[in-house]
TrEMBL record:
Gene3D superfamilies: Phosphoglycerate mutase-like. It holds the Pfam family His_Phos_1. It comes from the Bacteria. The lineage of its organism: Bacteria, Bacillati, Bacillota, Clostridia, Eubacteriales. InterPro entries: His_Pase_superF_clade-1, His_PPase_superfam. This is Fructose-2,6-bisphosphatase. It comes from Eubacterium cellulosolvens (strain ATCC 43171 / JCM 9499 / 6).
Amino acid sequence: MKITMIRHAKVKMRWPFRCNSEEFDAACQAYDKAEIVKPSKKPRKIRKAKVFISDLNRTRWTAEGLFRDTDFTVLGHIREVKMNSFTDTERKLPLFIWYFFGRLQWLRNDERQAETRRESVQRAQTAIDRCEAEGRDCILVTHGFFLKILMRELKKRGYAIRGNNRPLIRNLQEITAYKE
């Protein structure tokens, strides 16, 4: 069995370099609604694999650009891990500070974040269960941060991972998990 994971296409949005907590939260919401840069790859036909997309539009638009004559199944479990501002402040901080401390709170299961690490791991496990229940190859069009969680859980289940030798996952990058 093979599970191919694809990160969505590049999103058409410029993040603010510096922002306060309210502006950061608004930017995160805008990102979830923003359009994508259409994939330049030639669409391919999928014959046997089941294709899952998250419930965020950028994965649907990506899948429509990558695959032709293919039905997609929305699987909310593979959506991105939502991030909130780590504190309420009017002070404008660099974007990387918002990311760093927001993900640190997530890592520590802080309730300020919309989802805890435990909940994210549970979603990944449920998504893998769904793929395994299909009994055939699956393609997941999903999101960068969630992909890292998904890969970690796949490794725990004995899958070999191919296609990810960088710390960051690029847009449209394909990563494949194999299990004999």
